[in-house]
Amino acid sequence: MRVEPVEGVEGVYWIVNHDRGGAARRLATVNLCPGRSVYGESLEHVGGVEYRIWDPYRSKLAAYIMKGAKRLPIKAGDRVLYLGAGSGTTPSHISDMVGVKGTVYCVEFSQRAMRELIERLSARVNVYPLLFDARFPERYSGFVRPVDGVYCDLAQPDQAHIMARNAEAYLKKSGWGLIAVKARSISVVAEPELIYIRELETLKSRGFKILDEKRLEPYEKDHLMAYCLFEA
Fold first, then answer.
1. What's CA 195's distance to the chain center, in Å?
2. CA 118 to CA 203: how far, in whole Å?
3. How many Å apart are CA 91 and CA 130, to the nearest integer?
4. C-alpha distance from residue 80 to each of 107, 142, 205, 206 (Å)
5. Shortest CA distance to 177 belongs to which of 132, 231, 220?
6. Residue pair 175/167 in contact by the 8 Å Cβ criterion
7. In a 3-state reduction of DSSP, which class is residue 232?
8. pLDDT (tens digit, 9 = 90+) per residue, 46-90?
9. What is the pTM (predicted TM-score) of this model?
10. 27 φ/ψ sector (left φ>0, alpha ψ -120 to 50, else beta)
């Protein structure tokens, strides 16, 4: 077994296994809390370092990397505002990537999901759970400092507008944004491609420049991930 960095993606690695059938590789991040698995993922030890395997079928950000993301903006020390944190699967890997000097503000509206997130991520010193509705960013202004990036994964029909409102409130100029567009949360009848175009046009009209976009099949059906910069 060996470890290789993922090109253009800081803090994410390939764990490469060799057997008689050839080489197989899996995504992973360095575990910020050694000995602890967050959602049942495998822990691998290579060269005295513990890595957490990152499943692209359970995380849209991992799926985006697997689909060939040319570059990922997240880096060590970043403050990240995560909208729609759910029970903490992807936030836990971003927590690994930004490290102890970084911060992940996890905004989640569902009380059940927030309870699971707190149970899973309570040992992580860089994670701040926020039980709020992301549609109203002013309600958590007392808890969030200016951020380097906004990650948006909301099952809402106006998710691009929600991301833009949060960017206007907290994102630094030239900060980055990542949005997982869920076509079927917006319309169950419209063609996903038309929905993606409309959502990206919304982001452009609110000051974002789109740098990359990729559909996430086969990992996530009718989803698109877009990477953008905030220029407003």
1. 21
2. 31
3. 13
4. 11, 16, 23, 19
5. 231
6. yes
7. coil
8. 999 999 999 999 999 999 999 999 788 999 999 999 999 999 999
9. 0.94
10. beta
